[in-house]
Predict the 3D structure of the following.
Amino acid sequence: MRLTTILLSSAALPGALLATAVPACAQDQTSPVTTNAAVDGQSSTAAAQAGDTRELGAGDIVVTATRRSERLADVPISINAVNQEALQNSGATDIRQMAQLAPSLNVSSTGSEANASARVRGIGTVGDNPGLESSVAVFIDGVYRSRTGSGLNDLGEVDRIEVLRGPQGTLSGRNSSAGAINIYTKAPSFDFGGYGEASYGNYDAVRAAGAITGPIVKDLLAFRIDGVYAKRDGFYRDVVNNTDYNDRNRWFVRGQLLLEPSSDFSLRLIGDYTFRDEKCCGAVYVDTREKTDPTPGVAGDYAINPAGNRIVDVINSIAALRGYPAGSAFPSGSDPYSRRIAFSPGKAYSNVTKDYGGSAQIDWNLGGASLTSITAYREYKSAGATDIDYNVLDIGDRPADGNNYRQFHTFTQEVRLNGEAFGDRLNWLVGGFFSNEDLEVVDNLKFGSDYGAFAACRIVATINPLAALRNPANPGCLGTTPLAALGGASGRQAIAAGLGAASGVILPAIDLLGTVNNVGTTRDVYRQNSQSLAFFTHNIVKLTDRLSFTAGLRWTQERKRFDATFGNNNTVCPQIQGLLGAGPAGNLFNNAQLAALTRGIATLACTGNSSAALNGRTLNDRFKEDQVTGTAVLSWKPTDRLMTYASYSRGYKAGGYNLDRSDLGDAYNPATIPNATGARLRFDPETVNAYEVGLKYSSRQFTFNIAGFRSEFKNFQLNTFNGTNYVVENIGSCSNGLNGADQDNSAATGACTGDVKYGVLSQGVEAEAGFYPARNLAVAIGYTFADTKYRRNLVGSDAGAALDPALFLLSGSQMSNAPRNVITSSVSWTPEIGGNGMSALFYVDQRTTSDYNTGSDLFAEKMQDGFTLVNARVGLRGRDERWAIELWAQNLLDTNYTQVAFNSPFQGAGNQQQVQAFGGTGNQLFSAFLAEPRTYGVTLRTRF
C-alpha cells in the first residue's frame, strides 16, 4: 500500500497526518498560474504519490489556499491541510470530526445537527442563531456555504481539507473574520476507477459509501458519482417515548462532469443532494442543585441547599400529578452520562433537513493570465420541531406542524483573474464576488399544557419555598386546605398575608399565569435578504529570489433587508401586563418592594415577548455597510528548507439581525411591543486586526513549524441564551474605566462615555513537529496555546451601551469553548507483509484539551474539565488497496464530555456566581448536549 504523508503547515498541527510525497516534488512545482487550481492541486498530489512513497519524508501536499497551486511549506499563511487518507484513518466523515487532527479548530453543535459552530483559535460564531453569519466560513469546491452546519453532512470522498486561520477575504469570494475551511472533493478522472466501502459498528451503525469515475468521451468528458448512506441508533434513550435520540438516518449523492476540450480550458459541473431525517438533539440535566447565600451581605461564598432545589420539587410534583412514575422527570439521576432522557409524550420529534445545489466552474488559460469563474445556486431547509424544555412535562415545544424551519436560497458568483508579470517577479490576482441570499426563519414556539401550573408553582416557590404552600392542581398553584404547619391557614391565605394589600392584584395575576397553557406562537416569519458585492486583489512580489512581499486588498458592500410578521394567541400576557402595570394597585412593575416579583410574573406570562398584541405587527428595516480590508505579508527563505514570515490582516464580518423577537425588549413591559422596531434587532459588523509571525522548517526526516499570533476583535458578535431570551451583543471595551459596572447585575449602569475599542483578544502560539525515523513510520505532534479573552470595561454595542447583566462574568475572562491548551499527536505504521504488496495499518491519534467553559455566559455550571480523545485503527490491505479490512474505534477510551451546557429553558433563575456576587438564591437548572460516546466497528473497502 502506498502511504502518503501530509506536512501540516503553519501553526497548528502535524497532528496525526500522513499524506504522500515524493521528495523530488519539492523541486518540481506547478506554475502558480493554473487553469484549475483546485483540480490541479489534486493532480499534483497524485503525481507525487506515483513514485516510491514507501519511504516517508517531509513530503509535500499541493494546496490552493492562495488560489494558486503551491507547496504547503511555501505558503506564508497559517493553514492546515488534511487529505482523504488522514481523515479516513481518524474516522472523520465531516468537519466536526476533523478537529481531532487540528488543535486550533473546534466544532460543536447544539439544538440541531443541522447547526454547528466552528471556532479557530477560540474565535467563532456562538450559538445557532441563523441571523449571525459564520466567523469561520465554509467552502466546498469553491462554493460558499451560508452556515457551518452544511459541513456536518457526510462529505463523500475528498481530496483534502484546508483550514485557513485568521481573517480571510483577499483570496476568495466570501470574507470571514476568524478563518475559513476549504473542502475539495475528488474530481472526475479520465481513467476508469472507483471505490466502495461498507462499515458496521455498535449502536447498530451501518455506513456504505462509494464512487465511480471515468471517461464518457475519451480525453474530453469525464464523470464521477459519489454516494453515502448512513444509519445508526441514537446515543440517548427516551424512557417515556421508548425511542432513541441523536440517531443517524441520512444519505448523500454528488454527481460531476468535467469537460476539457483543451489543456487551456475546463468546465466542471457539480450537483449534490443531502437528505437527513433524524431525531436531534437530546439533552440531559447536569446540575440541579440550589445555591444559597450563607452569609448575606458578605460576597464570595455560597452553599448548597440541603433541602434540595425548589424547581426540582415543582417539576416532580407536577409529574406525580400527571401520573408519571417516580424518577421520570430526571431519569439520568446523578449520572448524566447514562444518557437517559424523558421528553413529553408524543414530542419525540424527528426533523428533516434537505441541502442541495449545483455549481459550474470554468477555468480558462488565456496565455498570460488565467480566468476562473464559479457560479452556484443552493437551497437549504431544516425543520426545527423539538421539545424545548427537554423534560417529561409539557412546558414548551415547537410542534411538528410545518411551521418551524429555517431556509436559505443562495446564489453566488465569483470571478478571478490571475497571472504573472515582470518575468515572474509579480504574481497578481484580481477578483469579484456577488451573492444574493434569501433567508426565512419560521417559528411556532408554544407554551405547553403543563406550562401554566409550572410557571405559577415557580412563582409561589420563589415567594416562599415551603412545599406545603403549593398545590399544582389548584388555580395559581396555591393550596386551599388549612394546614397545621401554616397555623391553620391555607397556602393561598399564607401567601396573601405575606403580600399584604397588594395580594388583591398579585394573587389574581398568579391565577392568570396558571392558565397559560397550549398558547403562544402560531406562525412567526422572519425574512432577511442579503446582498454582498466585493472586489479583491492578492499580489505577490518577489523582491529577491528569497524575499517576497504579499499585498491584498478587498472592498465589500453588504446590503440587508429585514421584515417580520407575527401570529400569536397568548391573550393572557396582555391581561397580566395590564393588571400589574396599570391595575387597581397602580404600576407595580416600578414598586421598589414588589418589582422583582411582579416583573417575574409578567415575564413568565410573556416570555420571549409571546403575546397576542403581536398580531398585525410587521417589522421592517434595512441597512447598507461598506468595509475595506486587506493583508500584508513579508516572507523570507534564508535557506531552501527554512521559511519565515510576518503578516498583518484586517478582517470583517457583516452586521445583521437577531431573528428572535425576545430581543425586542423586556417581556414584562407592556410598552415593548407597541414600540418595537426592526432596528431593535440589528447588531453591528465585527472587525479584526490580526498580526502573525511564523517559521517553517522542512526536511526529509523532520519538520517543525511555529507561529505566534494576535487578533483584536472589535464589536465581536456574541449570541447567548439566558434561560429565557436569546441576546445578541456587540462586545467592545470602553477606553474609560467603568469601575466594575460591567460586572454588576444592573442594566442601568455601565454605559461608555469614552471611545469603544476592541473587546476580544486572541493571542498565542502554535507549534508542530513531524518525525519520520524509518520507512512507513510517522510520528506527529501539534500544540496550540490560545489565550482568547474578553478585555475589561466591556460594553454591548459600538455606541457604548451597557453590557447585558447576564454577561457579568465576561470581563477579563477566557472565552467559551476556547481551551487555552490543546495537544494533538499521532503515530502511523504501515509495515509490508511479505513481498506480494500486502501491508498492515496501525494507527492511533489523540487530542488533549485543557479546561474550558461551554456556555457563552461563562457560568460555572457549564465548565468542562480537560479531557483526552483517542481514535485508533488497525487493518490489513492488499496491493494498491484493491481490498482492505480495518477494525476501528473512535473515542476509544469512552471519554465523557460536554459539547455545550445551557440554562434549562424556564426552569429557574440564578447561578452559583450570581449568588456569590449578589446574594440571593440560584435555583436555575442546567442541561447539556453531550458529545458522542465510544463507537467501534469494522470496515471493508475495495478500490478499482
In short: The first strand starts at residue 62 and ends at 63. The chain has ten helices and 53 strands. Confidence is low (pLDDT under 50) at residues 1-35, 44-59.
